[in-house]
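Quick note —
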Amino acid sequence: MSQYLCSIDIGTSSVRAALFDVDSGQITKMCQRRYGLMFLPGGFAEQQPKVIWDSLCEATKALFADGINPSNVRAVSISAQRCTFIGVDADYNAVTNFISWMDGRGRAYCDKIKTVVRTDVYNRITGMLPVPQPSINKIMWMKENMPSLYKGIHSFTTMESYALAKLGADDPPVSHSLGSYMGMMDAESFRWSQELTEKVNLDIDKLPRLAAAGTQIGHVSKKGSEDSGLAEGTALVMGGGDLQCAGLGAGALDSSIAVLNMGTAAGLLMKVDKKIETHSNGLACPAYIIPYSLEMEGHAQASTCVYDWFTQLFGDVERTVAQRTGLSPYQLLNHEAELAPPGAGGLLFVPTFNGAGAPFWMPSMKGMFLGLSLNHERSHVVRAILEGISVEMSCILEVFFNAGAKPRAIHAVGGGSKGDLWNQIHADVFGLPVLRPAIAEASIVGAAICAGVGSGVYADWTQGTLSLVKIAKTYEPRESTRETYTNTASLYRQVLRTMGETGLDVRVGSHVDELLGVKYE
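Predicted structure written out below.
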């Protein structure tokens, strides 16, 4: 009789649930349910707890619709989007919506953190930077602007912990990797920082306890079973942040491998052997998914969502053909991009639709096409989008090398890793081999490894990773493209630096926000 591990990934735009066969290490079944994000006045971005929970339960129930016995599931673990948090009461009922990592209400409080703590001290404590994404600045905003609501909140917690509570865990902890991205965890002691919370005037007793990934923290309750379809009594195991889970699910057990995660946003990470000062280079050095270890990472704030944007606005033909052929619109666009040469005829795309992330950190920055001419065709534009995102990620990889890291290969995962063209562009731009694991949804693989370690299916993290992670294809960098992409990357960096040094990033961003009616309070 087959035994399974169940993993759940709560992403920005959808939730996925999967069953992994313990013996074969293969996915037996995976189900997905999509949902939206509410963009509200003031730069707010929120998601409704009921929508998230109902979607999760629909996905997990669908796993067993074909007759798989839920009693054969050994353990459940969750990967969740980072920085997104919720305020709950003492019984874990939602007091607020989920406040998204994309929410901009706390931007002004980043400057307050810099004033009362200093960037270098904040980085020393947390391994993070005082930037808009982490939860801390939004909680500061809430305390100052909605004091009654703040006072009535028992604790601020994560999507993972909220879901674990709904499944049956009693007062579930926050996993270290997600704790880092709340912006208040000491990256050396793996505890909430009393020093930091006092400096920013937040109540440390409103933060849940912390625990390492792979820690068993309860079992599915009767109510959790009725809602989710999981068997009552199934072990609940701590997972963690989606990108850290993706690192593990891509096979990054040590510092020889960097992981490129191409999702709604893009991230590049690698496990490090010791804490690295990162405040001067715009990266983060938070907790990794392997207990009591750290990783170094940087992000682009918009990745495959840019391709989605282009497809929705300009992909009528691809969408129509896709319906008739069974191909996806993205496959068709990739075929078109192949018609253009490397370098996209000199067309440079800057994919900063949601601000520039590491290593530039320009939150007001908007996206751009530079060098458009009457000689450019649609294929150049599509290829430039792919190349621009790869070049943006190469800026992060450059900082990795400057910090002393020496990855020998890149493992590419996420929805954007499924196309051969983009993986080859990555390899050419990075100048390193790019390896594609067989399962692109690496976050859900990483969560399954957590479930396996926590339930005793796997003796350790190495056994779990080797059991579930298989490489499907390798893309070697081509010497013929080196000069083209070196020049493209150099121009990209010069454009970003010029925008920042002249203040054009803020002026253009403010102009766009004003005309679109976007306000950050």
